[in-house]
Write a structure and sequence with these properties.
The protein is α+β, with helices and mostly antiparallel strands. Helices cover 43% and strands 21% of the residues. A five-stranded mixed barrel has the order 1-2-3-5-4. A hairpin with a 7-residue loop joins strand 1 and strand 2. The termini are far apart.
């Protein structure tokens, strides 16, 4: 089989991968490129098929599971308001179950207490437990007396 036929096969498999995003067709396209190189150096059809099969098997058995694990893992960088969860803040206006104001990283945020029975005074340090819209849900760093 001529090397350019393998290149056409690789291109077709690459398009199929682009349309499906399964990682299977992309790995097969890579295997077709390996077969094209083997064909280009003058090895016969049997050698080309063996190279294609070996490269495809290696990709599907070794590379694909690793890539799927990497894609399934949570991102390490939190962005936007998600980055504020877990930060320490200072109470600027008394925080109750319904309203309040805190300062997080130099910005003023509306806040409410996680525990509805708490009233957190001005100057207290709190931890941001979650963000609900534009409101930070907070809990005091030290329990109040």
């Amino acid at each position: 089989m001529p090397w350019f036929a393998w290149l056409l096969a690789a291109a077709a498999l690459g398009v199929a991968e682009f349309l499906t995003l399964t990682l299977v067709f992309g790995l097969l396209a890579g295997a077709a490129l390996v077969a094209a190189v083997v064909a280009g150096i003058g090895i016969g059809l049997l050698g080309q098929l063996v190279a294609f099969a070996a490269a495809a098997a290696a990709g599907l058995v070794v590379v694909r599971p690793f890539a799927l694990r990497q894609m399934a893992s949570a991102p390490l960088i939190r962005e936007g308001s998600d980055a504020l969860v877990g930060k320490r803040a200072e109470v600027m206006q008394e925080v109750t179950a319904t309203h309040g104001l805190i300062k997080i990283s130099g910005e003023a945020w509306s806040a409410r207490a996680l525990d509805e029975s708490l009233v957190i005074p001005v100057g207290a340090l709190v931890d941001v437990m979650e963000i609900e819209g534009a409101t930070a849900v907070v809990y005091p760093r030290e329990l109040l007396p």
